Amino acid sequence: MKPLALLLLPLLLFACRSESSTVSFTVSGDAAEYAAYETLVAAFEAAHPEIDVTLTHIPSAGDYSAKLVTDFAAGTPPDVSLLNYRRVPAFAAAGQMEPLGPYLDKSELIAREDFYPITIDAFTWQGDILCIPQNVSSLVVYYNRDLFAAAGVAEPADDWTWDDFVTTAVTLTRDSDGDGTIDQYGAGIEPSLYRLAPFVWQNGGRLVDDPANPTQLGLTRLPSLQALEWFVALQTVHHVVPDRTAEAAIDSETRFIQGTTAMFFDSRRGTPTFREAADFDWDIAPLPRGQEAAGILHSDAYCLSAAAKDKDAAWSFIEFANSPEGQTIIAGTGRTVPSLRAVAESDAFLDPAARPSRSQVFLDSVDHLQIVPLISTWEDIESTASEEIERAFYGDITAEEAAILARDRTEEYFALGARP
Asked: Residue 196: CB partners within 8 Å, gap ≥ 6?
């Protein structure tokens, strides 16, 4: 006859298994970023053996965004996802996000005062903190130090201006073989509202008529229009960035990696790619400054689906991911500017041996960062306005015509959008 303990063992094992929880977590990004999330999940599961995290990786950011929209609409979203603050209002307005403020207030690992305040503000909707911010990135200028040195051009200073930038870009734009075709561009930048925004603010302009309760875009107002004209002139007047045909042939990010574009505007997102693929010395500089200092927040956060079955287990993972241990793991990819002050100001981020050597630029810009309006239809507003900005950028219409069209075409989205 078997001992009673042996007879009870299968029942005990079944009970343990039945008490375990599974949390689904979906991310996008390159191989290095995915590897970091695998490390994050493994570290969490070691600390919480009762919770299994199922990690799904969708490399393409576009595919990732499309799948999230489809899955949320179908009622089958991942328990935890990473979302940019510009996208969260659409899900929040549909009641698809579980507010995380109450969880954060009870946490013994993290507290709201540990984070850079702007990141908390960006993910606050109707008084509730919806998601826990992972990063506090911003738009910067990546530059090829080798090209600067070869041309005898001084590297960008921390206080360089719009005029300094244009002069530098003109000097570094070259037709090396004299065949009438530009072989090296001074700069590369995406012609979009998101890239334009910090220059509008730097010129004392407004992106929208009323930041607290926006009803239309403010690009037609003089300071904003002047910023748009300066932005458009980079291509139409100075020709320091590729025209439409050249950009379609080889995009500016690829040109930068290949060493045929001297400067490229991007957030911290570009760092892992440039570390791996750029075969030259490079670094970063702050945005060239206009009338005043201003930058634009690039921030993602861990969000909890309202449809998640075990919200406490999902919160445990989000809490760990945003603890100093969790943020240090992800910071190792180079992809993020940690939203926790303690991690951002440590060697986990400010690693003097890793590119970029001027990572402090990201932290120095935090006090000047602004956010776009939190409105549920912002993605529609941004994409529609960007179509007109792109047309002006490539010389199809004037900057003023683009400003008017962008304002008029987006008014319906402002009227339909839910606000916090």
From this structure: 227, 228, 231, 389
Q: b/e for 311-326, b at 16 or more Cβ within 10 A?
A: bebbbbbbbbbbbbeb
Do residues 391 and 193 make contact, with C-beta atoms less than 8 angstroms apart?
no
> Which amino acid, 288?
P
pLDDT over threshold 70, residue 18:
no
- pLDDT beyond 90 at 33: no
Type of residue numbered 149: A
Cβ atoms of 169 and 263 within 8 Å: the answer is yes
Helices 31-47 & 311-321 angle (0-180, nearest 10): 120
Tell me the residue ranges of DSSP E strands in 277-358.
282-285, 295-298, 300-304
- The two tokens of residue 145 are 């130090």
Going from the C-alpha of 8 to that of each of 4, 16, 18, 20, the distances in angstroms are: 6, 12, 15, 19
Res. 19 pLDDT band, cuts 50 70 90: low
**Contact call for residues 273 and 94 (beta carbons, < 8 A):** no
**Coil, strand, or helix at residue 176?**
coil
Computed over every residue of the chain, the mean pLDDT equals 94
C-alpha 94/C-alpha 45 separation (Å) is 32
The secondary structure of 370-391 as a DSSP string is E-----TTHHHHHHHHHHHHHH
